[in-house]
């Protein structure tokens, strides 16, 4: 998801998206460790998506101060 799309979401939706992405990353890491993950690039994509969402959350929190 692009940062411009993320900026349109509410803070609660962004926090929910981070939780879901972290869960998905955990599951992908477990699959990778057991050799069941076929798309290893998914790990990097998830990490970057989480960082992108957290950046937008910080921007929104700074804007409300």
Taken from the alpha-carbon principal axes, the silhouette is elongated
According to DSSP, the number of beta strands is 0
Percentage of residues assigned to helices: over 70%
Major β-sheet, in short? none
Rg result:
14 Å
Spans of at least 5 consecutive residues with low confidence: none
Give the SSE order as H and E letters.
HHH
Structure description:
Helix 2 packs antiparallel against helix 3. This protein is elongated. The model has no long low-confidence stretch (mean pLDDT 95). It has one domain: Helix Hairpins (Orthogonal Bundle), CATH 1.10.287.310. It starts with a helix and ends with a helix. The longest helix is centred in the C-terminal third of the chain and has 24 residues. It is built from three helices and no strands. The protein is an all-alpha fold and 65 residues long.
Short description:
The radius of gyration is 14 Å and the shape is elongated.
Write the layout of secondary structure elements.
Elements: H1 3-7, H2 11-33, H3 41-64
Could you name the key traits of this structure?
mainly alpha, Helix Hairpins, 80% helix, 0% strand
């Amino acid at each position: 998801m692009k940062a411009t799309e993320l900026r349109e979401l509410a803070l609660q939706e962004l926090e929910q998206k981070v939780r879901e992405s972290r869960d998905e990353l955990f599951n992908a890491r477990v699959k990778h460790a057991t050799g069941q993950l076929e798309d290893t690039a998914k790990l990097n994509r998830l990490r970057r998506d989480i960082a992108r969402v957290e950046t937008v959350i910080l921007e929104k929190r700074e804007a409300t101060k």
